[in-house]
Amino acid sequence: xxxxxxxxxxxxxxxxxxxxxxxxxxxxxxxxxxxxxxxxxxxxxxxxxxxxxxxxxxxxxxxxxxxxxxxxxxxxxxxxx
Length: 81
What we know:
This protein has helices spanning 16-19, 43-55, and strands spanning 4-11, 26-29, 33-40, 60-65.
């Protein structure tokens, strides 16, 4: 599995101190929700982060994989002669 960027949305405003528990994720705090954005190496790491969210008593709103930065690059189609 290739690393994938994920956006994990939590209900409410999460402080940077509490957010530091989700290592490797960038915190974007809003008024009603907080988003954590970062690269997840595999499903084991993703489930570990989700377990940590639960253990901290945070309310999970959504988990969304983000499109790869180079997803707009087109792969040439191989044509047989």
